[in-house]
Amino acid sequence: GLAIHNALAAHDGPTTGIIEGLAASAASLAVIGCDTVKCYANATYQIHEGLSFAFGHIADLQDSIEWLQQFNEAAVATYAAKTGKPDEYIAAAMLGDKGDGTKYTAAQALEIGFVDEVIPIGNNKKTAAKNQDRERLTGMLAYRIAKHRLTMQMK
Q1: At what angle do helices 87-95 and 58-83 cross, to 10 degrees?
Q2: Are 102 and 47 in contact (CB under 8 A)?
Q3: Is this model's pTM higher than 0.70 or not?
Q4: Residue 111: how many CB atoms within 10 A of its CB?
Q5: For residue 103, what are the β-bridge partners?
Q6: In this predicted structure, what is the pLDDT of residue 144?
Q7: At a CB cut-off of 8 Å and minimum separation 6, what does 94 contact?
Q8: Around 65, how many Cα atoms within 13 Å sit in the side-chain half-sphere?
Q9: Cα–Cα nearest to 82, from 23, 20, 21, 40
Q10: Torsion angle defined by CA atoms of residues 70, 72, 76 and 77, in that order, rounded to the nearest 10 degrees
Q11: 25 with 48: CB under 8 angstroms?
Q12: Which residues are 118's β-sheet partners?
């Protein structure tokens, strides 16, 4: 997630990340590397501490613990940079009440600063096409009414 985040952040052109369903774990870090983050109103954003699987001797397990601690510090710094929230706030959210992180609705993610815009449900091409049809029909109706009124005034 951090590597993708950094690649997106370093991209020369404008970038927009769109959360369509769930941005959790690495995806929650990656998407905030974009200049603008949009989230559908019915989507979810989740952050949590790093996860790992360790096998080996005590030294191997200690290496895994140290790596997870370093990763958590980097993730906290990244989330805090996006949201402007204090490191302690982010670290507590990454841990969560049950040790499994925190899930946010789109509205909550917007309020905290993980996302910049919430996309309303149904805001898609079909809705846009419906609105265009409605506008075209409304325009045609207004034209016919105006034409009828002009015709009536001429009589």
Answers
A1: 120
A2: yes
A3: yes
A4: 13
A5: 46
A6: 73
A7: 47, 48, 49, 72, 75, 76, 79, 101, 102
A8: 7
A9: 23
A10: 20
A11: yes
A12: 39
**Angstrom distance (rounded) from CA 147 to CA 143:** 6
Distance CA 36, CA 27 (A): 15
Q: Which amino acid is at 83?
A: T
Q: Which pLDDT does position 42 carry in this prediction?
A: 96
* 2-9 LR contacts (CB < 8 Å, sep 24+): 2/29, 2/71, 2/74, 2/75, 2/78, 4/29, 4/30, 4/33, 5/29, 5/30, 5/31, 5/32, 5/33, 5/78, 6/33, 7/33, 8/33, 8/34, 9/33, 9/34
Please check whether residue 91 is in contact with residue 72, taking contact to mean a CB–CB distance below 8 angstroms.
yes
CB burial of 46-80 (b: ≥16 within 10 Å; e: otherwise) equals bbbbbeeeeeeeeeeeeebeeeeeebbeebbebbb
Residue of 130, 106, 93, 136 lying closest to 41 (CA atoms): 106
- Per-run averaged pLDDT (10 residues), the chain, 155 residues: 92 94 94 96 96 91 94 97 97 95 97 96 66 70 70 69
Phi, psi (rounded to 5 degrees) for 124: -135, -175
Closest CA to 2 of 36, 26, 35: 26
What is the β-pairing status of strands 44-47 and 102-105?
antiparallel
**Token representation of residue 18:** 């769109």
